[in-house]
Amino acid sequence: MRTQLNALVNSGHLTTTQAKAKMMKPLFDKLITRAKVGTIASRRLLAKKLASVASANRLVDVIAPLFPDRVSGYTSSTKNKIRRGDAVTMVTLKLMAQLPTPVAKEEKKVGVEKKVKTKK
């Protein structure tokens, strides 16, 4: 579950089985509620639950501000298809708010190359 929660935090959507999606919804709701507090203690607790400091910071800094008035129901699930191998219903789990698109990094301008002196 921890890996799937990290994937949901990082990408904003996830395709998984219906049973796992039902298990993840309340876990993710609790994480978002904790992230809305935004204190150092809550960041540390989120990092412990997600096992990733970067994901915890993203949850607090990017995702939690998207839901200022919402109390619960941060995700929605839509049925996709039935998996062929074992006939399990596949579901896409998405955040209710759109994540902002990441800003592309500017390319560094290449300046005048410095001449390197070599010892003889």
Q: Overview of this structure, please?
A:
- With 120 residues, this protein is α+β, with helices and mostly antiparallel strands.
- It has one domain: Ribosomal protein L17 (50s Ribosomal Protein L17, Chain: A).
- 43% of the residues lie in helices and 17% in strands.
- The protein has 4 helices and 3 strands.
- The protein has a 3-stranded antiparallel β-sheet.
- Strand 2 (75-82) and strand 3 (89-95) form a beta hairpin.
Structural class: alpha+beta
Q: Give, in spatial order, the strands making up the sheet with the most strands.
A: 1-3-2
Spans of at least 5 consecutive residues whose pLDDT stays below 50 are none
**Succession of helices and strands:** HEHHHEE
Count of helical regions: 4
Quaternary organization: single chain
Instruction: Assess the beta-strand content as a share of residues.
Output: 15-25%
Whole-number tally of structural domains: 1
Q: Which secondary structure elements does this structure contain, and how are they paired or packed?
A:
Elements: H1 2-11, E1 13-17, H2 18-37, H3 40-50, H4 53-63, E2 75-82, E3 89-95
Antiparallel strand pairs: 1-3, 2-3
Index terms:
about 120 residues, 3 strands, 50s Ribosomal Protein L17, Chain: A, about 15% strand, three-stranded antiparallel β-sheet, single chain, alpha+beta
